[in-house]
C-alpha cells in the first residue's frame, strides 16, 4: 500500500517526472511491495529489497540491489558505484521517453525470480589482521593494553593495524603508536570521533 510520502515523491515537479511515473507503472504490475526508504521508492518481496527508483538532476533510473545476477541482454546495466558496490547495478535514463516498459518489465521479472531463488552476493571474508611488530611489542609488554586491544571489534583492531602499517617512516610509526595507545586503553576506535 502506498503512503502519502510515496505519492508526494511521485507527484513532485521534476524534469524526469513522466519517466519515473512510467517506471512506477511497471513496478505496480508486479508482485513487488512499494515502500519509501532512504527518501526514494524501493520495491521488495518477502521483506528483501529488489530495486529502487531514483531521480537526479541529469538522470533517473532503476537500481537493482542484486543486479550482478541479471543477464542484461541489452547491455544497459552499470555498476552503481564503481569500487564501492559489488552487487548493485543501475539502469540510467536521461530522457522521459527513453523507458521501454516491456524491456524494463523483463529485467524486473528476472530480478524478482533471482530474489526468490535467494541469489545474493556473499561478502568477502576479510583476511586475518596482521598486527605490526611495533604494536605487538607494546601489547606484549602491557597486559591491560593487550586485553583492551583484544576487546575491540575486529574492524577497530584492523583500523589500528592499518594505521601503523601504512606509515612509511619509523619515526611516523612511533608517533602513531604514541597517539593510539591511550585510545586503545580507553576502548576507543581510531575513528570513533568521526562516527
What does this structure look like?
With 195 residues, the chain is α+β, with helices and mostly antiparallel strands. It folds into 2 domains: 4-117, Aspartate Aminotransferase, domain 1 (Alpha-Beta Complex), CATH 3.90.1150.200; 133-194, no CATH class. 42% of the residues lie in helices and 16% in strands. It has helices spanning 4-11, 17-28, 101-117, 133-140, 143-151, 154-165, 170-185; strands at 33-37, 40-45, 48-55, 60-64, 77-79, 89-93. The chain has a 6-stranded antiparallel β-sheet with strand order 1-2-3-4-6-5. A hairpin with a 4-residue loop joins strand 3 and strand 4. Helix 2 (17-28) crosses helix 3 (101-117) and helix 6 (154-165) runs antiparallel to helix 7 (170-185). The protein is elongated and about 65 Å long. The chain starts with a helix and ends in a 10-residue tail after the last helix.
